[in-house]
Amino acid sequence: MSKVVRFHQTGGPEVLRYEDAEVGEPGPGQVRLRQVAVGLNYADTYFRNGTYPIPLPNGIGVEAAGVVEALGEGVTQVAVGDRVTYTGFLNTLGAYCTERLIPAAALIKLPDTIAFETAAAMTMRGLTSAYLLRRLHDFKPGDSVLLHAAAGGVGLIVAQWAQLLGLNVIGTVSTEAKAEVARAHGCNHVINYSAEDVATRVRELTDGVGVNVVFDSVGKNTFMGSLDALKRRGLMVCVGTASGTIPPFDPQLLAIKGSLQLTRPALADFIADPAEKADLAGELFDHVGSGRIRIEINQHYALQDAVQAHRDLEARKTTGSSIFVI
Fold first, then answer.
1. Catalysed reaction per UniProt (predicted)?
2. Fewer CB atoms < 10 Å away: N or C end of the chain?
3. 286-325 residue pLDDT tens
């Protein structure tokens, strides 16, 4: 009997339930996957609290790694015994489980250099980092980036990758302990937003010019400060809303603050094309497999501890990546 975490109503972490589930045999285009490790992502909380509405009851989680155990009709992308990872959106929802059925098209084969736990900790975060740095802006060595939540799972990967590209990375964190983590992973400068005004400090660090790009995963609480940290014609990338959604605003504001550009990308649109997904995954796996990018797994949970895992995540008690170990 498979174990699964589901929720039957939206709300806080307490709505998550650890339950039994029958998996069955894979249908056309599906595989049955035995999972080894499951990723915990902030996006999971958006499904749970209703920010991303889905039919209920439902499973939760969109990222995991494991071994293919059975193939449905027409599956040729993978074989029984293949080591794989996956991430996505609605097509991979339900990752918090020990075994599941999943579309074969969502799977990415793992090279031998990448462990299951590493894959579960980095597939979503790593592919997000890949498109942020390789698809949204034509970065040049010496360009500057403001990276919010620099000690988080995405932040630590982006900071290391940005250093490989020769970028000047200014990270923001909430505590001095997180500042040390961010510095150790490639941030040239770190701002503790609990003690300093971010935009003012960014201007000081950039001789009054501002940064080329802001990667803002916080949302409501940091939006205006992020705009104020940008140089003329800079790019604001809204990549998350940990503090809440950004209130409506007049686009004229972007012109007033220096003809700024703004985008709100989603990972699903950068991995929808199989060739592009393979290209981004290949570059990510190469960096991680060679040791150029380190994946920090700082929290390990059992599936039955999903409630506590979500509480820790929303309380900002975590650094780096968090996973469930099966």
1. 2 a quinone + NADPH + H(+) = 2 a 1,4-benzosemiquinone + NADP(+)
2. N
3. 999 999 999 999 999 999 999 999 999 999 899 889 999 9
